[in-house]
User: Fold Putative YccA/Bax inhibitor family protein from Halosaccharopolyspora lacisalsi.
Amino acid sequence: MRTTSNPAFKNLPSGGGSANFDYGRGGVGVAPGQAPTAAPPQAERPMTIDDVVTKTATTLAIALGTGTATFLVGGQAAMGLALPAMLIGLVLALAVIFKKKVSPGLVIAYSAVQGVFLGGISWAFASMFSPAIVMQAIVGTMGVFAAMLVVYKTGAIRVTPKLTKWIIGAMAGVAVLMVVNLLMSMFGMPLGIRDGGPLAIGFSLLCIGIAAFSFLLDFDAADKAIHQGVPAKFAWYVAFGLMVTLVWLYLEILRLLSYLQSD
Assistant:
């Protein structure tokens, strides 16, 4: 099983699926008078970087399309779609993670629904603050993604077991804080990590940093899958995993920008 902060990447097989040919069987080199055995099944084509790029671009384009459409609808309709889309997206995400077989349809559906959710949330932030905040969050998200890709490719920060454990531990800690804050908010005693104050700004910066570093684990898992000859269909898992991290990063950047504009 792969060690990564992203649950989607745990579905990637750890061994290659394209190099297990048995050329000692079949119609070649059989004994005289012996009927040739059936040809071995063809192995699946191994994943390439082009597969990852194509599938990731597809999911992003779908999310951008549904998100833009929802944002343009605006008003109560957009905000009313956000919560159902979030819940449906959560169900689809769990289905993708726990389903035994690769399902491109589920990944595509998740991307479309997440686009609706992000479109509704973005419209709410734009109406409360400024329409520019949405474009700033998009540019910031893409900037962080590109920067971490450069960091990974250049080897400026290497993905080591120690770094992996640190990132996974940090994500677990952040998740616990979010849950505790939600529960305390129900009783009117929030922790102050989402109220726009200095503590909230620091918490959002922490989340952005953890999300950025988790890209390194995502890139490393995808890179290893490519080198191990994992079947091409698993590129959908890679695209899904990157989408999950991008959504989290975008929401945190959007929230941080709202805090800064409130000051």
In short: Helices lie at 49-73, 75-98, 104-128, 132-154, 161-186, 198-227, 235-262. Residues 16-32 have pLDDT under 50 and may be disordered.
